[in-house]
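Summary for the funding panel

The consortium committed to producing paired sequence-structure records for every protein in the target list. Below we show the first two records in order, beginning with the earlier of the two.
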Amino acid sequence: MNEKTQILIVEDSEITLYKLKAILVRLGYSVVAYDNPQKALIWLNTVEVNPDLIISDVMMPGIDGYAFVKHIKSTPKISKIPVILLTSQTDLKDKVAGLEAGADDFLSKTVSPNELELRVKALLTRAQEANLSISQSASKVYSVFSLRGGVGTSTIAINLAIAIAQLHQIKTCVWDMAVSSRQCALMLNLKPRNTLAMLAEWPEGTIEESLLSSMILDHDSGIALLPSPQFFEEGDLVTRATVELVWPPLQLIAPYIVVDAGNHFSDPVISILERCDAIVLALSPDLASVNATYQAIRIFDEMGIDREKILPVVNNIFPRSSLTTVKISEGLKKEIFAEIPFDTINMVKAVNQGMPYFMLAPKSPVCTAFSKMAFKITSMNKEE
């Protein structure tokens, strides 16, 4: 077995811990061991490279094994790590409870060394095959863009991402490329420590998934954020080369990615727009915004971007407008993909509270519109 394969053991019984560690080390694995899940979680949250497998006891003081597994499976950074639950309980309902918590396998503490070896190898092989399958199927990437500021690209990106995450019960990442506004972290009340600016001096080549994961912040809504530089003067540090570095590992981290592409045709933004699966072209129902959107479509045509990928979305930031979606569609010579209802009061409240609109008013017409939009855009890509 590859000596780099690392297994984390969480077991409060010193005798069992020693026995498991001795067997696994003899089999050639690298082993990290903790006697309680709290210490293990601290280590998991700080380590750069995740272990390949976790073996955890069920009956432990404080956090039991079921809660430990649930926490792992609900934390994007570590959710893909396979987990074996180990217990002295043999009742079928205990095994069912473990599997329902998210465990990948369930073993008795009296397991023989030979069975332990076979089960560990089988689970590691299964996990490697799953990771290979994921790496071979690229994520779906949707960019939210506008040539006119103030139409809500960040609002649309964040709430569309939440709608996709809730619809498919799968990890969705917001990639903030609106480096001139940097609104996403503010709107999610997140405080980035590491951002894309740290890749400015990175040598040509690739970066590890674990390094990119260290920049990504998880949010209570179920989405994650890859933040833009938080200082205006760092904006120029994000280049096309940065996008080339980030693109491959980010697709391993999140099956769905929503990019806040801002409102400028910068070189790094163009490199994303050229390769994403769809472009949500945000506009408000006013003549200036419609004109800017028409110009953006013209530029996309010159870039050779398929018009089917361009999806105009009207964000009603005014209570009333003489421009209906029908008139806007006629002016753009393009069908309107979706329309977001007017609700400035709650939108402003959401921003001021650092809370996505989806969490503030989940049953509102606005959230219904985002949910329909999420279904429509993800279904479109499935059909393709």
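The next record, for a separate protein in the list, is shown here:
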Amino acid sequence: MIPYSTQKIDRKDIEEVIKTLKSPFLTQGPKVVKFEKKLAKKVNVKYVAVTNSATSGLHISCMALGFKKNDILWTTPNTFVASSNCALHLGGKVDFVDIDYYSGNIDVNLLEEKLYYAKKKKKLPKILVPVHFSGLPTEQDRIHKLSKKYKFKIIEDASHSLGAKYNNEKVGSCKWSDITIFSFHPVKIITTFEGGAATTNNKLIHEKLKLFLNHGITKDKKKFKYNKNKIWYYEQHLLGLNYRMTDVAASMGLSQLKKLKNFVIIRNNIAKKYDKLLNKKYLHLPKITKKVLSSFHLYVIKIKDEYKDYHEKLFNYLRKKKINVNLHYIPVHLHPYYRKLGFKEGQYKISEKHAQTSVSIPIFPGLTSKEIIKICNLINNFFIKLDKI
């Protein structure tokens, strides 16, 4: 079975992990701090707080921005549920902005329109979570301008887009946002087994992130309220959680980070091969403008309208041929939990159409040219046979 994505782990990665396993610190040691510093330098940002998942990062980011009960968070339906669940965990409310069909990203024109009417109703979001779907950055400069006009905070969900660029600015630099979230799940650009990170240029936000991910506890003597001269002392200042990354995971991240640039190059080269080999008569392929560098976490094909009734058949056909294609995503508002909150089918038609016509085909550094050709031949022949019926 060819997976839609998988990790690329080599001997050096394994050796780095083994070194840490043999060290005094499996967790709460020097590797985490080192990984944070290296990642900050890599994405050109001042501060990084690594976590045990991107989901955790989203949760504490909302907390660090002061999100509370009855506050409103907006994101897109075309994402994983974590992008909106973070608000619900804090007693907040969630709403969605539909996407641009071809990019899969938030439609900024629809966002602007929704903000205009939300202001009239006094229901503006406190936080917007734009998702860089598939590794393709959103129109960050336009969204940032709207944030200043309508006074909301921005958490970029960049779980897909480590290594991507927008207007030659690295995703994660937070030039146009308050916080950026990365994921290091095994199917993502680099892996720490499970893991995530929150980046920011704001010192106070960073301090809160570091507190919230570690039970709300500090060992910084400068922050102590009492017993400032006790060597063994620590204080809890906030109600936090245990969202720490381990040193074992961080050692994997440090090794993987060295290969980030090459991973992104390989993924882009695979995308170019797909662009050349797949039959555009039947499919819409990803469109990448000169303004962006996609990290191509996903390569998503969309079946054209005249063939859309064959979506499930194509999916099942490829699975039977041992091509483990996937769907990104089931629109969040259509999950049973969200339907109970009042969302219903037909509310976000573009996201729904996206789910009804999209297939994520394999893309990862270990994918061979032979496998790429096989995948393209299977997809092209599937549609050619349909034309003959």
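Regarding this second record: The chain has 13 helices and 17 strands. The first helix runs from residue 11 to 21.
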